[in-house]
Amino acid sequence: MFAEARVGIRDPLRHGVACGSAQRRTPIAGNTSDGGRSVVSRALAVLGSFSKDRPEQTLGEIQQATGLASATAYRLANELVEWGALERISRGRYRVGIRLWQVGSLAPQARDLRDVALPFLQDLYEATHEVVHLVVMDEGKALYIERLMSRPEVQVQSRVARRLPLHAAGSGKVLLAYSPPELVEQVIAAGLPKQASRTITDSNVLRRELAGIRTTGYGVSRDEMTDGASSVAAPVRGADGEVIAAISVVLPSGSRDLQALVPAVSLAAAGISRGMRPFMMP
Amino acid sequence: MFAEARVGIRDPLRHGVACGSAQRRTPIAGNTSDGGRSVVSRALAVLGSFSKDRPEQTLGEIQQATGLASATAYRLANELVEWGALERISRGRYRVGIRLWQVGSLAPQARDLRDVALPFLQDLYEATHEVVHLVVMDEGKALYIERLMSRPEVQVQSRVARRLPLHAAGSGKVLLAYSPPELVEQVIAAGLPKQASRTITDSNVLRRELAGIRTTGYGVSRDEMTDGASSVAAPVRGADGEVIAAISVVLPSGSRDLQALVPAVSLAAAGISRGMRPFMMP
């Protein structure tokens, strides 16, 4: 439904469509016959059945999540283990292998963007000692690329490689503010679930909020994703001025004047944007 | 040749063998017939043809690297694009997709170890303002899991998800010092290539160096990986005391007394080791 929302580093929007990503989230559970699906798509379904909530799975769990026949799941898991995409651990459990992480680390969002951003994120962390995030949009969600934190006083729901809703966090709202209006309407149409006591659940309030972000160039949230947590976020831009990511500082609500953090967050975002330009040349 | 050297978080050594990883690095280039290889192994070969040096490839380059027939390479690349493992970009080029990074981020070295280590690495970075590394062993090489740095004065060859030789860096020597003797002999037998002016290339010197690391509990290098760069490294241990990773601080040679950094590096390594224990319970 949000497949069109994927924002790549060079080709936001258009890119996701070209990739045929609309087909990617086809539900596969419940399909117990393997007919009609290619071997590769079945193997990828096995990989895709692993998640933050299911980082380790038995063969039975893989089978259940993918709808594959038992013998097929077994054979595919073995082939994935052989290459190093999965690892077999004790008690018949499987987990994702380090080789997949290595190859995955070649994705430009994880490579170019993260490499350019990290020094600025560290400066921001050191200046604030709060939680610092680097976030991109992926399929209509905020995808966390990097998170710096010490032992935070604030409970954060972010986790690297995790996706969270766009309407409820400072960084998500910034990404949404600079998205095409169609995407904003898609997000609104899908519903604005309440995440915390002050989540914006009214579509008109959200539209006004996004317009405000476009005017001021930064976003602020208070108790919108998690009660007790506030954030200040700013957009990171690519070569032709399009927003490709957002950074944010998350801190305990009421602990500081959020406005006072805006210059630091904006400065770091501007530094990353400047750093991204060489990568963006055609 | 070093396939047995893979060190997992829970099952060092043994694990890699159980995974059949010995078959994983079979050279595939030059095999222009697709016969005898399963569809899944061919698709994984396509993924594996991407690297730090080749983060973007044309279909022709993929074909050349994998030895696949043109039509096969095209079909497999399309299936990988459809799922999001690859992305198609301009001028017929492909690159690794963010979805593969997301799934790869579930690997325990990238997830548990990195999550536990990051606060300690940040403290170490803040205390020293030098380059800070988290490194694990993978197939007889030092694999960089995390790197914190600002704008370093020292040229470093590390890069997240990059693998470097074990004998030439402080962190690599620490990993090697706590490896089984067979692995040390394998590394020596494979040759000790000179990386910089003071790389240890003599096997007896290396053996003495490793014994010294086991005695003192830390490793130091000076102009061994890169001229002008020195490092201090310490081991990170898992629940049953085995070394699962190393951390290091890299700084310009001659800029500081390396010995003075040992307590900070050792303290951070001890903190991470303590943090890893809950994950290690059977």
In brief:
The structure is a homodimer of 282-residue chains. The first copy, chain A, is an alpha+beta fold and 282 residues long. Chain A is 42% helix and 19% strand.
What tags apply to this protein structure?
homodimer; 282 residues; alpha+beta; six-stranded antiparallel sheet; three-stranded antiparallel sheet; 9 strands; 42% helix; globular; disordered N terminus
| Secondary-structure-derived class of chain A | alpha+beta
Shape of chain A: globular
Q: Main beta sheet of chain A: strand number and arrangement? A: 6 strands, antiparallel
The poorly predicted ranges of chain A are 1-33
Number of helices of chain A: 10
Strand content of chain A: 15-25%
Strand elements of chain A, count = 9
Q: Oligomeric state of the chains?
A: homodimer
Helix content of chain A: 40-55%
Largest interface between protein chains, with number of residues from each side: A-B, 70 and 70 residues
- What strand line-up does the widest sheet of chain A have? 6-5-4-9-8-7
Order of helices and strands of chain A: HHEHHEEHHEEEHHHEEEH
> Would you tell me the overall average pLDDT of chain A?
82
Radius of gyration based on Cα positions of chain A: 20 Å
**CA-to-CA gap between the ends of chain A?**
31 Å
Task: Walk me through the structure.
Two copies of one chain form a homodimer. With 282 residues, chain A is of the alpha+beta class. Chain A has ten helices and nine strands. In chain A, the strands form two sheets. Chain A has a six-stranded antiparallel β-sheet with strand order 6-5-4-9-8-7. In chain A, a hairpin with a 6-residue loop joins strand 7 and strand 8. The first copy, chain A, is globular, with a radius of gyration of 20 Å. Chain A starts with 13 loop residues before the first helix and ends with a helix. The relative contact order of chain A is 0.12. The N terminus of chain A is likely disordered. Chains A and B meet through helix 2, helix 4, strand 2, helix 5 and helix 6 of A and helix 2, helix 4, strand 2, helix 5 and helix 6 of B.
